[in-house]
Helix-turn-helix domain-containing protein
Amino acid sequence: MRHSTATNNLDLITGGMLIGYARVSTVDQNLDLQRDALQRAGCGQIYEDKASGRAKDNRPELAAVLRALRAGDTLVVWRLDRLARSLVDLVQIINELGEKGVGFRSLTEQIDTTSAQGRLFLGVFASMAQYMRDVIHENTMEGLKAARARGRMGGRPSKLDAQAIREIEALLKDQSITVGDVAKRYKVSRATIYNSLNAKPGKPDTQTERDAT
C-alpha cells in the first residue's frame, strides 16, 4: 500500500514520491543489492517481488505499485530487466506510466523519463518494440504462406495420420457406414474426420449427409 506520509522522499523535479520496485526470479537470489540501491536513490517505499518463475506472470507487487502510483510520482528500478521480461512489455509499462503522469527511472542504465534525454531513450525503445512486433507478424505470415503452398493450414495438427485417413476413405465407400461410426472407431470427433478429409487435395465425396439422420 502507498505510504502517503513519506513526504521526505520526493522527486525534486516533479514534486511526487520516489517509489521503488525490486524483483528476483529464483529462490537463491536476494533483494539486498536492489533494495540498497533504491534506498540510496531516495526511495522511501519499495515494492518487492520474489517470484518462483513457475507462473507465467507471478508479480503481484508490480501490479500493486502500478495501482499505487499517482501523477507526479516516479517509479525507480535498479535495472530495466527488473521491471519487465521483454522489450515490448517494458515499453508498454513505461507508456502506461507516462499516460498517468508518472515518471520512470532506471539506475543502472541511467534512464530518467522526466528528462529530455530519458524521453529520447523511451522513443528509441518504442521504435524497437514496434519493429519487433512487425518482424514477428511478418514471420508468422510468411510461415502460414509457406504452409499453405505445401497444402498445410494453420491450427492444431490432425489427430489422424495419412494411413488412418486412407483407411477412413475406404470405409466410407460403404454406404452402410456413417462418419459417426468411423469417429467412434478412431476415437475422434466427427469434426476431426471431416477436417482431415477436407484438408486432403482431391478429397473424395464422403456423402456426409447420410449422418444427418
About this structure: The chain has a mean pLDDT of 78. The beta strands are 18-24, 45-50, 74-77, 103-106, 111-112. The chain has eight helices and five strands. The chain has two domains: 18-130, 150-201.
